[in-house]
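Escalation from tier 1.

The customer reports that the assembly of two entities below gives different structure tokens on two consecutive runs. Tier 1 could not reproduce it. I'm attaching the input and our single run for tier 2 to review.
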Amino acid sequence: MINASTALYGVIGDPVAHSLSPTMQNWFIDQFHLNAVYAAFRVKSEKLGSCIDGMRAMGIGGLNVTVPHKEKVVAFADEWSDDVRLIGAANTLKNTGGFISAHVTDPYGFIESLGDNEQRFRGASVFMYGAGGAAKSVAYALAKLGVDQLLIVDSAAEKAVELAEQAVKSFGIKNASALQKPLAPVKTILTHTHIVINATPLGMHPWHDKTVVEYPDVITADHYFYDLVYNPGKTRFLREAEERGATIQNGLDMLIFQGLQSMRLWTEQPLALSAARLNDLRSIMNRQLGLNE
Amino acid sequence: MINASTALYGVIGDPVAHSLSPTMQNWFIDQFHLNAVYAAFRVKSEKLGSCIDGMRAMGIGGLNVTVPHKEKVVAFADEWSDDVRLIGAANTLKNTGGFISAHVTDPYGFIESLGDNEQRFRGASVFMYGAGGAAKSVAYALAKLGVDQLLIVDSAAEKAVELAEQAVKSFGIKNASALQKPLAPVKTILTHTHIVINATPLGMHPWHDKTVVEYPDVITADHYFYDLVYNPGKTRFLREAEERGATIQNGLDMLIFQGLQSMRLWTEQPLALSAARLNDLRSIMNRQLGLNE
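Tier 1 run:
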């Protein structure tokens, strides 16, 4: 029951009409019996400053920030977490008495989504497709997970080089390289690198017949394939890996756990999700996406 | 179920912690199956401009405006209803694609609250205590109801004179006068004026042993006593009138119908409340006030 002391949270983006965050965060609010409500706000880039001033003026407790505002929003905050300083992007704003702190929960969402597979990462080599904003958060998470080596491929080669440099210099990964597609021995690398991540939109609806992987035949049961895409629930990237016995994971849990981490920041409560409840939430979100499990 | 296309409405004021509007408006949203949610925002006067800019930037669909912002907010709108121009105050803002129109629904709330007693007003004389913001909205409503004569008493005599002038010149009441307390024949006027309105806070919790009426003995069964106060549900003003057989009404229905009128403006739907549902809502609101009926 909403009353005059109900906290307001929300997500800002453009567009936001298809955001899953309202469904997810209001489900958290319900499950954890929080006196809060979560809405979606379509905010134009040029209105970002007015939006954050409005957040201060109206006492809006917290905002998630999504595409295309994650980088630009940083300048409008009053305080930044170390993660935001390093990554240069924020997905969570918290309002404490008109003082706005910026946070980024995507790397924590990635880590928490791994479950038991987290143990694969310490000292490991990781092959990542993509060098955009999502890939940057993953690279930061990989450093936290103790990954030894990160190999990055992106169709924009200079972005891959830049992220590899940042992964070493700022995030602290021992060894990171950008692979130049025509020259790099991608097939050999794929054979020997057992953690493979897709941080590109390829394979996402409506490109669901596409995959970044050119040599699926080298995939074995030792491989772990992680796709940040969650719509469709099983991309061609994941399907071809599963067919060869690999362990697979899509991006839905990362989305869930980055959102949960934002809610923890706003409420300062250690909200925990049981396996059964997590499954319920996955079903609700997949249903909203129009996906059968 | 809140989703990404759920509209956000709310109330701004300072304080707003005890506002009944969130309870009431979310009840309307539920009853009328609207895809919307309504929150309360405590906004400082000096932040009013940032709040309205934020409303534009975030696409907040509508705001109710309460004390102390009703007059000051007018300057921040882009367009004004005739009522707002005449009264100089607004209690409702509507956002149409970033364009903010200002409205005042209090007079409509007063009129709709009258029910069958509306017929008492055409051509009648009305005795009103109070000349503040609420009294102004009532005076405007009285003009619309076809009242012939309005007599105003206020402890601040110059405010009563000002409102009486405005009632004639701007609102179009044929005859309006401010009564100067020590000289005016208040007892005689009360005897012969059968509609008596309290638009002062006197009698409101925690002044519930007070009343503006000095001569309750002249009250008869022909009188109609209307108190804008709704907490307590029956003020001394109403109790003393009821004891003498008068018809009485408190301010709860005016609050309800001004809110409903705002929701009609925002949704552009002709929302109608049955007598039974109105009773349910009164109970819910009285319960929140801690009042037994």
